[in-house]
Amino acid sequence: MATPVNRLESMWPQDEAAETVARREAEPQSKHANSMEQTVEFLLRKHPKVAIAAAAAFGIALGWIVKRK
Asked: Using alpha carbons only, how large is the chain's radius of gyration in Å?
C-alpha cells in the first residue's frame, strides 16, 4: 500500500540508500529547528503580552498592506 507522501510508491519504489542519505543530511537541520522551537516556546511563555502585541501589530500591518493593493 502506498504511503500518503508517495502515492506512486508501487510504480516508483524509493531507493533506500538515497532515503538514508536524505535523512542523514536532514538531521542537523532538524536539531536546529527543534532548538529554535524550544526558544520560541520559552519566549512566548515568558512574555505572553509582548507576543500578543507583536502578532496584533503584524496582523494590522499585513491588513494595511493588503488593503492598499
From this structure: 21
Decide: residue 51, CB within 10 A, 0-12 exposed, 13-18 middle, 19+ buried: middle
3-class DSSP assignment, residue 10: coil
The helix-helix angle for 16-46 and 48-68 (nearest 10°) equals 110
How far apart CA 6 and CA 12 sit, in angstroms, is 9
Say if residues 41 and 49 touch (Cβ distance below 8 Å).
no
What number is the average pLDDT over the span 16-39?
75
Q: Are 25 and 19 in contact (CB under 8 A)?
A: no
What's the whole-model pTM score? 0.49
Helices marked H in the chain — which ranges? 16-46, 48-68
